[in-house]
Write a structure and sequence with these properties.
Elements: E1 10-13, E2 16-20, H1 35-63, E3 85-87, E4 90-92, H2 97-121, H3 124-146, H4 151-156, H5 159-185, H6 191-217, H7 225-249
Helix pairs in contact: 1-2, 1-7, 2-3, 3-5, 5-6, 5-7, 6-7
Length: about 260
């Protein structure tokens, strides 16, 4: 091969620019994406699909809830109560509770898997806090989907585990926003992405605080439990879908961690 020949030089072939050629002048296959880039795309796909599935399953379960369901005043987990009965001073009957509980499982597990894939895509030290908070969120979601806040849990004395799971899911998820956006920011993310991420975390943590206050006081009319709880949960889902799109479409391949050859 001539010393000036570049095996992957981009030259014009039959009038097309940017087609790679090999050392004998024939079109050659482009190099495969790095493992880090593949991890980023997989993480984005998981986070977007989990968020979409959560919203769809929640809406379907709410539509079949009896006697009625209020997004503003009722807890999200009311949709996952498997045993009809009196709860929060009213009758609760969710025929499609299994769909809501599936949404909790999918959201928690996919959020954690996505975080692990982000750690594969960037330097693991950057994504360590994200993985830790995502694990906290996953444990909380699984607890909420398994231990329901219904009459049976009250009688068994395990309802507090449901509450603890909700706290872990909301707090862990919103802290994961701060940790995750910091990791992505170091790969050259746009300023608007960082600002939106911080704003979503602030909304989520403020909503979580207002939920705790509303539960304790319930002052000033009907408590807006559903509004505050959704503010704390939807902020997480909105961020993961936003970041998923960023990972798939915008994160430069050059910022991805390359596999280490043995």
């Amino acid at each position: 091969m001539h010393p000036d020949t570049q095996p992957w030089a981009f030259e014009t072939i039959t009038g097309q620019k940017g087609v790679p050629i090999d050392d004998v002048g024939t079109p050659a296959a482009p190099p495969k994406p790095s493992r880090g880039r593949a991890c980023a795309i997989a993480a984005g796909a998981l986070w977007i699909s989990a968020g979409g599935a959560y919203f769809v399953l929640e809406a379907i379960a709410a539509a079949r809830f009896r006697p009625y369901y209020s997004y503003a005043h009722d807890y999200i987990s009311d949709l996952g109560v498997t045993t009809p009965g009196m709860l929060h001073g009213r009758t609760v009957d969710s025929p499609l509770a299994y769909l809501m509980n599936t949404a909790f499982y999918v959201q928690g597990s996919f959020f954690l898997l996505g975080a692990l894939l982000v750690a594969c895509a960037v330097r693991p030290t950057r994504a360590g806090p994200l993985v830790g908070f995502a694990a906290m969120n996953a444990v909380g979601n699984i607890a909420v989907g398994t231990i329901h806040s219904g009459p049976a849990a009250e009688v068994a004395g395990i309802a507090w585990l449901h509450g603890a799971g909700a706290v872990a899911a909301i707090a862990g998820g919103n802290l994961a926003i701060l940790a995750g956006s910091a990791a992505v920011r170091k790969t050259g993310a746009a300023q608007w992405y960082c600002a939106v991420s911080i704003g979503l975390a602030a909304v989520g943590l403020l909503s979580f605080t207002m939920l705790a206050i509303d539960v304790k006081t319930a002052a000033g009319g009907p408590p807006l439990l559903g509004v505050w709880e959704r503010g704390g949960v939807y902020s997480i889902i909105a961020w993961q879908m936003l970041t998923g799109g960023h990972l798939i479409c915008r994160l430069p391949a050059g910022q991805m961690r390359e596999p280490v050859n043995p």
